[in-house]
Amino acid sequence: MSALLKIEDLAVVFDTRAGTVEALRGVSLSLGRGETLGIVGESGSGKSVTAQAVMGLIDVPGRIAGGSISWDGQALVQDGAQQHPSGIWGKEVTMVFQSPMTSLNPLMTIGAQLEEVIRKHLGLGRAAARDHAAEMLAAVGISGARRRLDQYPHEFSGGMRQRVMIAMAIACEPKLLIADEPTTALDVTIQAQILELLAGLQERLGLSIILITHDLGIVAGLCHRVAVMYAGQIVETGSVDDIFDRPAHPYTQGLIRSTPRLDEPEDRLTAIEGTPPGLLHPPEGCAFRTRCPIARDDCRAPQALRPFGAGFVACTQPGVDAWGDGK
Ligand SMILES: Nc1ncnc2c1ncn2[C@@H]1O[C@H](COP(=O)(O)OP(=O)(O)OP(=O)(O)O)[C@@H](O)[C@H]1O
Ligand SMILES: [Mg+2]
Questions:
Q1: Among residues 182, 207, 223, which one ends one of the domains?
Q2: Which residue lies with its CA nearest to atom 31 of ligand 1?
Q3: Is the same domain home to 188 and 240?
Q4: From CA 178, how far away is CA 166, in angstroms rounded?
Q5: Ligand 1, closest atom to CA 98?
Q6: 191: which residues sit within 8 A by CB, 6+ positions away?
Q7: Distance between CA atoms of 104 and 194, rounded to whole angstroms?
Q8: In Å, how far from its chain's centre is CA 197?
Q9: Could you tell me the pTM of the whole model?
């Protein structure tokens, strides 16, 4: 599959009063047409910063410190320098953010907000834009769409607002949708509906999706491939089936054994002890080694992603059952 999105050796830092936070430390990823990539990892691992970098949204105190991003052959970041191509962000590549309330304008009706996006990117007139806006609300499963165009964000429930955000993100027929924790704030039933909606849109529109989530269950249900992030790096990437069947990195194994499964009692869950290292002065070598049960001296050397099985792993002992219980 030819890659639409290519991220190569991307580095992003934040200049803070305490020093330089190394948020992304050499991230490489690619995504094909119609493919869904899950990005998982603990809080602070760099998932949202990766998405923001693809959207051209890294801003002071943050800056791109190295690497490249290209979209469909066009440079978004080239050799560490931010580029400003037109017609990509908000049109071909769109994003649903972590908190929908901060991304909808409380003072404008949902219809006015949708129509603004549609008129800007599709160049439709007022009446056609309104028709399209209603179609988009209907497409994300909001009934009585025409009437609801005249309502304000506060008149929508959390789940409905998240649907509106998705409607906005797909209104201009993007090729890539980045969804950052699109269902975290929602209850389980609504979560399932939103995920079903994304899967349906993907099939109908041939969308590529990057789905950022803490929830491995969501990844299993929706994604083709997974990238596991830890302390600003990708430590393992591969197909969903391979990663769930044969997680090769001790961190991935730890994540999976701490994820609830329907067929196992909850008391078998074991969270990974300890916390990720700070990114002000990230350690040399494998960042997970301080929490890893099988760490050894050579883990102090930098670990690049290397082919292992059908995927890629950054570990001195890929595939070893690190937690020793075969879970
Ligand atoms: N504006 C900022 N100023 C300083 N540091 C920042 C800023 N934004 C992000 N960071 C740092 O970048 C790192 C990665 O953050 P990011 O938001 O990508 O994490 P995440 O994986 O999305 O976490 P979560 O699951 O909590 O959303 C963190 O160490 C964070 O502290
Ligand atoms: Mg985040």
A1: 223
A2: 44
A3: no
A4: 10
A5: 27
A6: 183, 218
A7: 18
A8: 17
A9: 0.93
